[in-house]
Amino acid sequence: MLDLIIAFIVMLNPFALFSYLEPIRKDLTRKEYTSVLFKASLISLVIYSAFILFGNFLFDKIFQIHFEAFRIFGGIVIFAFAYQYIVGGRKGILKLKTSLDDLASDIALPFMVGAGTISIVLLMTRDLSIASSFIGVFLALTINFSIIFGLSKIREFIPKKKFKIAFDKNMSIFTRIIGFFSGAIGINMILTGILNLFF
User: Fold this and answer.
1) Who contacts 52 (Cβ-Cβ below 8 Å, separation ≥6)?
2) Can you list the residues of the chain whose pLDDT is less than 50?
3) Distances in Å between the alpha carbon of 103 and those of 6, 47, 92, 153, 170?
4) Residue 48: alpha-carbon gap to chain centroid
5) Residue 196: count of CB within 10 angstroms of its CB
6) For the chain, how many helices (H) and strands (E)?
7) How far apart are CA 118 and CA 55, in angstroms?
8) pLDDT at 64
9) Least CB-packed of 17, 100, 111, 150 within 10 Å?
10) pTM
11) Greatest CA span in the chain, whole angstroms?
12) How far apart are CA 30 and CA 18, in angstroms?
């Protein structure tokens, strides 16, 4: 269970998400920023819960897709995201809207819920019970929220602008480092899927 939780957090990449949220953080109060981040995490939890409950049914009964095929495809998607992190990073494209609820949903999809994280959730449901999968997803989202909130607090109390610039650059470096781990997870999923299909 621990390895899947770690993989889930790596795919969420809280350092990258912190960077994406930076443009809007400046235009929100601390309370609004925390509220938006909390709502985005809650929306993500609801979506992941739906996949925990019905994901395998959809794949096995409705679409009749071999799970190992999904594991291989999920690995390719995760590797593609990892490559994007490593080579160029991802630019913050979020903009402040009149509705904080709309902003929360924009953060949840696609920044917190994507093909890579959904792949990890479906792997959880194959290897763990439904209750354990819920706990794993909840813990991962809680840790993700805590890291982003903690980083925003640290940046808020950095006294000089040049130190804040250095802090932001370090976040970019962390994003790329986590990209390497994401890529390794993706390759491992591909290899595991191939081995399970043919050997």
Assistant:
1) 121, 124, 125, 130, 133, 134, 137
2) 92-93
3) 27, 16, 13, 20, 26
4) 11
5) 13
6) 8, 0
7) 9
8) 77
9) 150
10) 0.77
11) 58
12) 14
**pLDDT value at residue 92:** 45
* Rounded-to-integer distance, Cα 161 and Cα 155, Å: 10
Look up residue 1 and give its two tokens.
């269970």
Token pair, residue 103, equals 């902003």
DSSP E strands, the chain: none
Q: Any idea which residue has 């109060």 for tokens?
A: 29
Residue entry with tokens 């991802």: 90
User: Are the CB atoms for 66 and 74 separated by under 8 Å?
Assistant: no
Give residue 190's identity as a one-letter amino acid code. I
Tokens of 84: 């994007």
CA 104/CA 35 separation, integer angstroms: 9
> Which among 187, 168, 188 has a CA at the least distance from the CA of 16?
168
| pLDDT score for 97 | 55
Residue 42's contacts (CB-CB under 8 Å, 6 or more residues apart) are none
The predicted pLDDT at position 93 comes to 45
8 vs 78: CA distance, rounded Å? 11
Please tell me whether residue 88 adopts helix, strand or coil conformation. Answer: coil
